[in-house]
Amino acid sequence: MAKPIKTYRRIAQISTLMAIFIIPFLNVWEIYFIKGTFYSMDIGDAAIADPLAVFQSIVASGKLNAYMIGSVVIPLALMMLLGRVWCSWFCPYYLLTEWIEVAKKKLGMNLKKPAYDKQYPSRASKFRFIFLLLGLLAMMVIGVPVLNLISAPGILSSQALVIVKFCYVTFELVIVFAILFMELFYYRYWCRLFCPTGTFLSLFRYKRGMTVYKVKADCSMCHSCVNTCPMVINPMADGESLHCNNCGDCIDVCPDNKKEETLKFTFK
Ligand code: SF4
Ligand code: SF4
User: Fold this and answer.
1) 3-state class of 217 per DSSP?
2) Which ligand is in closest contact with the Cα of 246?
3) Which are the contacts of 201, defined by CB distance < 8 A and separation ≥ 6?
4) pLDDT band at 97 (very low <50, low <70, confident <90, very high)
């Protein structure tokens, strides 16, 4: 029997979490094949950067160069081909929120997951795009890339670097812990409604990229997929939504998939 998608996702997530500590450790030992953080990283001759960080830098400096363009090619190509897998497969913050959810269940705490309704995806979209826009406007007014200050994956990776290289942490870690602490009370609120990195990435979703799709018209309508979706969307109908991060949890949980392919990842 095939392993659940979540098994592979966890391997990717834990490897990424380990990498943010291993990379600076290698640098301490003067191995520089790979260096940087999730804001900007060099792997051999390839530069990879957070597209939102690059966008802010272009707007703030008014300059655009080949290095900036080259550094976003891989993340944006991945986004267009595989959807927002950065979030559910690699982002260390997302992994921490999943662990918080497990802890909440073990402690008997109420998950406080909002109930799905048809209007939710468009309401949530409006909210998070307005938040992103406000951040960009604030950046233009004060000339500082403020959205980097609330980029959870960027902060976590840069804090891992300062811990390994310099053995201290900075105030940014308090910001990310405060955001994380609120996850105890508001189900996945940061990734669903606020994170500027995830919101900006989702702008590059390409409709022919990887999408959850219900390939069998009739199913038992148990709604397990809807109840499971961490982004509070309906996987049977909203797979193409900008909210879907292609975590695959809905595919794993679908009981009909065990009998006949019903819900799966497809490329149109
Ligand atoms: S939405 Fe932001 S914090 Fe959440 S998984 Fe995506 S990049 Fe990470
Ligand atoms: S629709 Fe499925 S793949 Fe998309 S976020 Fe929800 S559970 Fe994950």
Assistant:
1) coil
2) 2
3) 51, 52, 75, 79, 84, 86, 87
4) very high
Name which residue sits closest to atom 1 of ligand 2, judged by CA. 235
Residues linked to residue 214 through DSSP beta bridges, in sequence order: 263
Residue 188 CB burial class (10 angstroms; 0-12, 13-18, ≥19): buried
Helix or strand or coil: residue 40? strand
* Position 103, amino acid: A
CA of 248 to the centre of ligand 2 (A): 6
In this structure, what token pair is assigned to residue 93? 């913050």
Return the closest-CA partner of residue 43 out of 33, 31, 54: 33
Q: How far apart are CA 114 and CA 214, in angstroms?
A: 23
Tell me the residue length of the chain. Answer: 268
Ligand 2 atom nearest the C-alpha of 265 is 3
For atom 5 of ligand 1, the residue with the nearest CA is 87
- Span 128-162, pLDDT tens digits: 999 999 999 999 998 889 999 999 999 999 999 99
- Determine which helix (DSSP H) or strand (DSSP E) holds 237, and give its type and residue range: none
How buried is 254 (Cβ within 10 angstroms: 0-12 exposed, 13-18 middle, 19+ buried)?
Answer: buried
* Residue pair 7/247 in contact by the 8 Å Cβ criterion: no
